[in-house]
Amino acid sequence: MMRCWLRGLAALYALLAAVILLLRLLAYDAGHFAALRQSLLAAPGCQRQSCYLGIRPGGSTMRAALALLNESPAVFHVHADFYTFDSATPYAVSWQADHPYFPQGRLEAQYQLALVDFIWLPTTLTLGEFWLAFGPPRSITIYPQFQVLRYGTFAVQSAPACTAFWWQPAEVIVSAGHTPPHSVPLPRLRPAACQAARS
Fold first, then answer.
1. Number of neighbours of residue 16 by Cβ within 10 angstroms
2. Residue 192: pLDDT band by 50, 70, 90 thresholds?
3. Positive or negative, the Cα torsion across 41, 46, 52, 56?
4. 75: closest CA among 105, 48, 45, 46?
5. Sequence-distant (≥ 6) Cβ neighbours of residue 49 within 8 angstroms
6. What is the pLDDT of residue 136?
7. What average pLDDT score do residues 169-182 get?
8. Residue 17 lies in a domain
9. CA distance 120 to 94
């Protein structure tokens, strides 16, 4: 009889925990990450492409990217570093922005080319928050100094950690992209990060 009561209480506890978790996820989905998904997945001119603020790595010129940043009402303090042999073409541009998740950013040119190579966006979010917003990534690669979670049109980078795995500060990398040489299976993600953090 006691076992039946304990099983009933355990089932009730599991049900309540599932309801609380579902409500938390719905709250995140409804408001907290709407602007994040809009910025990375549904920005004008960026659908299904690696792109941010209309700037496409591998497709946009540095001059066009600089013009887009200067025209954006949310971007301020734009700073450009120019080639010594071409004072009209920047090789790196950094900026600050009035954005809840991406308060600053930087883009750099491909070596000796005028095209944007990648866009780097430090964020105010953690690795766990990205996982909640976008779900499991397409692939994961863990290096000794950092781990990269690829979502198709962008990647999330953070330092490997064991005890605070989900709380690691995250950065977004938007690039033309490439297929990683190997990928860590999802069930092995945290153990692999722990091993990298110890090495």
1. 10
2. low
3. positive
4. 105
5. 56, 59, 153
6. 83
7. 71
8. no
9. 9
Residue given tokens 């500060």 in the structure block:
169
Write the DSSP assignment of 79-106 as a string of letters.
EEEEETTEEEEEEEEEEEE--SS-SEEE
Q: Is 77 left (phi over 0), alpha (psi -120 to 50) or beta?
A: left
Domain count of the fold of the chain:
1
Q: What does the alpha-carbon distance between residue 182 and residue 1 come to, in Å, rounded to a whole number?
A: 53
- Whether the CB-CB separation of 79 and 93 falls below 8 Å is answered with yes
Q: Provide the residue range defining the domain that includes 75.
A: 33-198
Tell me the whole-structure pTM to 2 decimals: 0.71
For residue 72, is it within any domain?
A: yes
For residue 153, give both structure tokens: 């049109």
Cβ(131)–Cβ(91) below 8 Å: no
> Residue 60: inside a domain, yes or no?
yes
Tokens of 66: 């600089």
Nearest CA to 40 among 157, 161, 147, 173?
Answer: 173
Q: Establish if 71 belongs to a structural domain.
A: yes
pLDDT in tens, 13-52: 656 544 554 545 554 555 667 777 777 776 666 766 788 8
Q: What are the backbone dihedrals phi and psi of residue 186, each rounded to the nearest 5 degrees, phi first?
A: -55, -45
Report how far apart, in Å, the C-alpha atoms of 47 and of each of 55, 73, 82, 123, 153 are: 12, 21, 30, 21, 9
Read off φ and ψ for residue 136, nearest 5 degrees.
-65, 140
Q: Which amino acid is at 155?
A: A
Tell me the two tokens of residue 166: 């989900």
